[in-house]
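We modelled the chain as a single entity of 137 amino acids. Its sequence is:
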Amino acid sequence: MKTLFISLAIVAASATCLAQCQSDRISLNQELHDAGTTMVGTVVAAQPVPDSSFHLDGIDYVVHVDRVIKGRMIDADVVHIFSENSPTKFPMQSGKQYLLFVHRNFNDYEVDNCGNSGLLEASNIDSIAKLKEYAKK
């Protein structure tokens, strides 16, 4: 039952975020060129982060880097991606694989909720090979 409530909260938060981004979504081409790294990664853990002088409260996602498509900003097998608890947060689930357009924000790696990041299986990118070709343009 607890899992059901958590899942419903995540879905509700995602719907709210998407509603706020409808007119300001970033094009795939723009985000491919603006992101420090475009990658496929699997979330292996998530830790709450309290409010501090450096950032708002949020979630620190530990993401295994499965494949780097473009960029060299991330040189490790695992990266921490922060998502603040705000209407623009980017929620992820442990064990799921994501296509991520990662940006550096001060000392944190982040994903833009109004961008093209999302579950790999649900992305409208039909193949990673095509995305790699598109990234070369």
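As a brief sanity check on the tokenised model: Confidence is low (pLDDT under 50) at residues 1-19. The domain at 2-136 is CATH 2.40.50.120 (OB fold (Dihydrolipoamide Acetyltransferase, E2P)).
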